[in-house]
């Protein structure tokens, strides 16, 4: 997981419950935010990074907006590639 404002990632070991997962999945990749709870109810959240595994099951509903194109474009203010939404041509 990559926490807000951090350059590096943090490896979480243990048993966690996925509380929420949201973001975008597009042709060029994904940008997902993950919130998990440990067995004591402590919440952790940040950017989901490659390598996350699910212990048992994850119920996931994905919506498709076929009239819109999602991509990432450089943002001079944040320094990151930020979400850009445009109509499908």
UniProtKB/TrEMBL annotation:
CDD domains from the entry? DUF296
Under Pfam families, the record lists: PCC
InterPro entries attached to this UniProt entry: PPC_dom
PPC domain location: 1-86
PANTHER family assigned to the protein according to its UniProt record, in alphabetical order: DNA-BINDING PROTEIN (PTHR34988:SF1), PROTEIN, PUTATIVE-RELATED (PTHR34988)
List the protein's name: PPC domain-containing protein
Organism whose genome encodes this protein? Shigella flexneri 2a str. 301
């Amino acid at each position: 997981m990559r926490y807000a404002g951090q350059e590096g990632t943090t490896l979480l070991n243990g048993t966690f419950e996925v509380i929420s997962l949201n973001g975008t999945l597009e042709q060029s990749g994904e940008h997902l935010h993950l919130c998990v709870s440990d067995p004591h109810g402590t919440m952790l959240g940040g950017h989901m990074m490659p390598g996350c595994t699910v212990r048992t099951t994850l119920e996931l509903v994905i919506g498709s907006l076929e009239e819109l194109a999602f991509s990432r474009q450089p943002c001079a203010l944040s320094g990151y590639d930020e979400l850009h939404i445009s109509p499908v041509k």
